[in-house]
């Protein structure tokens, strides 16, 4: 079964854990307990293919960020979360994305921009179109979500899996026949450069609402 290493990033308190736990366990965590680092596994069927998602729920708080480079290097898809109720959490994502691109040394990284807490419309300070514009600039997907009401939660992770599949399609026959040394297998899942599929990414630059 194909495995997907997904990383959830964003400032403290935006709802990274709430979104992850809602997706994996189907419950909403009301209590705020700052994360150090938690890892989850969930098997899902995406477009008829069984897929094992390994989701890393990271720390938004500065003091826990030492592991960042490592998980950015290993991650194949990234969920960048802000809260629609806090402007600073939106601003913080620009630097975060730059760091991901620098660490991965490519501009083509599967990514979903998420404006969470959309159930708190009365407290909204980041407009929907502001999120859409940023996602368009990044050529990434955009979703407004609510971990509390389970709005667009599954969509985040399914979209990331599809983005990864688009860049590195599963080709079972090829994998079986190929007789490559073990040392090559580690990096093979992350190699996108020079693949003909890159040309399709402009078309795949969709913005979901
Ligand atoms: N109303 C509402 N509250 C939410 C939502 N998502 C998260 N929360 C609340 O926001 C608080 C912080 O959520 P967490 O998921 O712990 O935030 P986090 O991003 O994981 O924070 P760190 O682990 O410190 O980085 C908690 O009290 C959650 O219940 C949402 O969609 N709507
Ligand atoms: Mg957390």
From TrEMBL:
InterPro entries: P-loop_NTPase, Rap1, Small_GTP-bd, Small_GTPase, Small_GTPase_Ras-type. Residues 180-203 have a biased composition (Polar residues). It is an enzyme of class 3 (hydrolase). It comes from the Eukaryota. Residues 169-203 are annotated as: Disordered. Its EC number is 3.6.5.2. Keywords: GTP-binding, Hydrolase, Nucleotide-binding. GO terms for molecular function: G protein activity; GTP binding. The keyword Nucleotide-binding applies. The keyword Metal-binding does not apply. One of its GO terms (biological process) is Rap protein signal transduction. It catalyses: GTP + H2O = GDP + phosphate + H(+). GO terms for cellular component: membrane. NCBIfam families: small_GTP. This is small monomeric GTPase. It comes from Didymodactylos carnosus.
């Amino acid at each position: 079964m194909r495995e997907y290493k997904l990383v959830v990033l964003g400032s403290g308190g935006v709802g990274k854990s709430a979104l992850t736990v809602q997706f994996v366990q189907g419950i909403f965590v009301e209590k705020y307990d700052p994360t150090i680092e938690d890892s989850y596994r969930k098997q899902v069927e995406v477009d008829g293919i069984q897929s094992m998602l390994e989701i890393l729920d990271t720390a938004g708080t500065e003091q826990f960020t030492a592991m960042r480079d490592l998980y950015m290097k290993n991650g194949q898809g990234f969920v960048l979360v802000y809260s629609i109720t806090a402007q600073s959490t939106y601003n913080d994502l620009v630097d975060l994305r730059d760091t991901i691109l620098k660490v991965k040394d490519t501009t083509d990284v599967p990514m979903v921009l998420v404006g969470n807490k959309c159930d708190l419309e009365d407290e909204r300070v980041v407009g929907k179109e502001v999120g859409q514009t940023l996602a368009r600039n990044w050529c990434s997907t955009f979703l407004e979500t609510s971990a509390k009401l389970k709005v667009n939660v599954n969509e985040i992770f399914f979209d990331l899996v599809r983005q990864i599949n688009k860049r590195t399609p599963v080709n079972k026959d090829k994998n079986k026949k190929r007789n490559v040394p073990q040392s090559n297998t580690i990096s093979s899942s992350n190699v996108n450069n020079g693949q003909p599929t890159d040309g399709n990414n402009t078309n795949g630059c969709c913005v979901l609402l």
